[in-house]
Specification:
The complex is a heterodimer of chains A (109) and B (114). Chain A has 109 residues and is mostly beta strands. Chain A has no helices and eleven strands. Helix content of chain B is 0%, strand content 45%. In chain B, the strands form two sheets. In chain B, strands 2, 4, 5, 6, 9, 10 and 11 form a seven-stranded mixed beta sheet that branches. In chain B, strand 4 and strand 5 form a beta hairpin. The chains are: A mainly beta (109), B mainly beta (114).
Chain lengths: 109, 114
């Protein structure tokens, strides 16, 4: 079977750094995605990892360890607009996405 | 403007009624998807289509049907709505030959079944 775990909610301070973890178990793996979803809006693509290591894209970075079934999303220089839910999703052997329940990130001034 | 549109934005429906949620994309993506999103749960795949003329069942297909007559449109039909189908429904599309095969989402339809 497949399973994805991520924290339900996290709180961080404006200007700080936050790391959102995602662990998974899967029988087939074709990559791991991170999406951002503001309240009442659609998810939007942030990052994709298929090989081990760190992918950096501006203030956001994503890391993958396939052997550990582990990924994290790192957000630097937090801004109030980063308050959103962050969704971890893995692409299975059928190229379908299996989604975590999401981590609600609250940014405080 | 390129993207995905969904209609209606929201709908209140009596149980037992038939309802079709519309989804149209203009990105010429081959794959399209329907998800439902419920509080505390991840997005769950209802049905998908990898190319026009083909469809497949996702994780929660019961009570829903889809068709893919052409590349752009992927309607989702609830034949006889039940209260447990109250949810936010998202349509998405992707280019299966793209670099990441990331999915692009429509704005969603908020459906309430009473």
């Amino acid at each position: 079977g497949q399973n994805i775990d991520q924290p339900t909610e996290m709180t961080a301070t404006e200007g700080a750094i936050v790391q959102i973890n995602c662990t998974y178990q899967t029988s087939g793996f074709n990559g791991l995605f991170w999406y951002q979803q503001h309240a009442g809006e659609a998810p939007t693509f942030l990052s994709y990892n298929v090989l081990d290591g760190l992918e950096e894209k501006g203030r956001f970075s994503s890391f993958l360890s396939r052997s550990k079934g582990y990924s994290y999303l790192l957000l630097k220089e937090l801004q109030m607009k980063d308050s959103a839910s962050y969704l971890c999703a893995l692409m299975d052997s059928n190229y379908q996405l299996i989604w975590g329940a999401g981590t609600k990130l609250i940014i405080k001034p | 403007i390129a993207g995905i549109t969904q209609a209606p934005t929201s709908q209140i429906l009596a149980a037992g009624r038939r309802m079709t949620l519309r989804c149209t994309q203009d990105m010429r993506h081959n794959a399209m998807y329907w998800y439902r999103q419920d509080l505390g749960l991840g997005l769950r795949l209802i049905h998908y289509s990898n190319t026009a003329g083909t469809t497949g069942k996702g994780e929660v297909p019961d009570g829903y049907s889809v068709s893919r007559a052409n590349t752009d449109d992927f309607p989702l039909t609830l034949a006889s709505a039940v209260p447990s189908q109250t949810s936010v429904y998202f349509c998405a599309s992707s280019d299966l030959a793209g670099e990441y095969n990331e999915q692009f989402f429509g704005p969603g339809t908020r459906l309430t079944v009473l």
